[in-house]
Amino acid sequence: MSSDNTETRTKILDTTVRMLEEHGGRGVRMGDIARATGISRQAVYLHFASRTELLVAATRYLDEKLDVDRRLAPSREATSGVERLALYIESWAHYIPEIYGVAKALILAQDTDEAAAAAWDDRMQAMRDGCRAAIEALHSDGTLASQWTTKKATDALWTMLLVPNWENLTVKCGWSTRQYIRWMTIAAQRTFVDAPDPTD
Amino acid sequence: MSSDNTETRTKILDTTVRMLEEHGGRGVRMGDIARATGISRQAVYLHFASRTELLVAATRYLDEKLDVDRRLAPSREATSGVERLALYIESWAHYIPEIYGVAKALILAQDTDEAAAAAWDDRMQAMRDGCRAAIEALHSDGTLASQWTTKKATDALWTMLLVPNWENLTVKCGWSTRQYIRWMTIAAQRTFVDAPDPTD
DNA sequence: TGGTTTACTTGACAATGTGTCAATTGACGC
DNA sequence: GCGTCAATTGACACATTGTCAAGTAAACCA
């Protein structure tokens, strides 16, 4: 899939993912990655033009390894909007902890690097598509609470599921993934789902 | 209130608040603040030991100016939990845009500076207290939805109201403050509020 | 065998921003 | 005039990213 797959390049990506995971995405420098990979700092620059490019590549690399599409399949095959919403939250909840290190590094890099901001934005837009699909499924079931438009509900669900919220609930509040799924699902259902309109 | 109120110190704080506001909390350097204040960079260090210390002082300075306590008074005087929740969300929603620049700078500084992280954490704990009070008001009205414990509901409401969510909804999704208030209130009520238990 | 290519190393260096230090200036009070 | 205090000036340490040029070593190839 990747255009250029040297063994060294792959080793760098493996190290990067591992170290970001270990350090929660903070304080991992180019020199650290090089040393841990067993090469010189400059060798890293032979494969990746900048730190941001490395982070973006690591994101893609991890996504391939985790097979995001497969994970989302159950949600796409749901037979009702409510089920689709619940399954989407569940896959997402299992996905975040696995990408958290890399994601956090990219989020932090946004402050100083335009390209990192764009890359993360892209990812989040993809996630938003999943949210919209779930909301639209509710809508066509007639179970989207009447106050919401699909646009507003999509915005709101998307925001709810953002990484900083997961971070706050798990890291600061000490919720487990199981609790996160349980309460996020409850909150989303209570917020967005109503019984279908009986006049239909 | 402040221990040490030189005129220059105040001028620095004014400049800092203004510049952070103007630039959304990003990319404002010590030298920029000094130049805009009309003093040398080193003069800033005569009043504030570090960038973080300046940011923290600016936060406090702004809080005094905005009179946070007065803003929260209506919420504290609410006669029902539901009203308290709505009024708290409303004051908070009017407050965030005014502190956003400084808040964002502090949030960004967290990555590299322990002290900035602690300062922001502190602020967010105070905000959490407001959330707990609102949730407890619901609880004692008997209108807190039965699935929630006060602890879990407080965590959830607190997370909902975090700055990154406001940022996403207003900046990325283009919501106005009015829309933010409207939909946050609806989401919070649907999530946390039930009719009181008729067996009471 | 010898030459070329390729990946990598080594060490130096620019740029950027924070924070420190020491010497100096200038005003104000006494 | 003298001391004090606030501020200035300019140099510097430090960390990190990114660049550059010269050198090495193995693999490939004729």
CATH topology term of the largest domain in chain A: Tetracycline Repressor, domain 2
Integer tally of domains of chain A: 2
Number of helices of chain A: 10
Greatest interface: A-B, 24 and 24 residues
Are there runs of chain A of 5+ residues with pLDDT below 50, and where?
none
Describe this protein's structure:
2 copies of one chain form a homodimer. The first copy, chain A, is mostly helical and 200 residues long. The first copy, chain A, has 2 domains: 7-64, Arc Repressor Mutant, subunit A, CATH 1.10.10; 67-192, Orthogonal Bundle (Tetracycline Repressor, domain 2). Helices cover 75% and strands 0% of the residues of chain A. Chain A contains 10 helices and no strands. In chain A, helix 5 packs antiparallel against helix 6. The longest helix of chain A is centred in the middle third of the chain and has 29 residues, at 81-109. Chain A is elongated. Chains A and B meet through helix 8, helix 9 and helix 10 of A and helix 8, helix 9 and helix 10 of B. Chain A binds a DNA duplex (30 and 30 nucleotides) through residues 6, 8, 29-31, 39-40, 42-43, 45-46, 49-51.
